[in-house]
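Q: Hi! First time doing this. I have a protein sequence and I read that you can turn it into a structure. Is that right? Here it is:
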Amino acid sequence: MPRSSLPSTLFTNVVAVTLLSYYWSWIVESIGAFWKAVLVAFFVLVTVNTDVSLSAQPEAPHDHDSD
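A: Yes, that's right. Below is the predicted 3D structure, encoded as structure tokens:
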């Protein structure tokens, strides 16, 4: 019954987002500088990895061209 599971999943996501946004400022103030640095480093890592994988795809034909 996917029809009955869809609203419950949607409801769970809405509740999670609502709680997260409600507690966000409190969380940000509570986690401290170390965890902020960890979060920033994580997002930078994800961005760098995305850029690397995007720029690695055009690199393969270039490597074949030099062969």
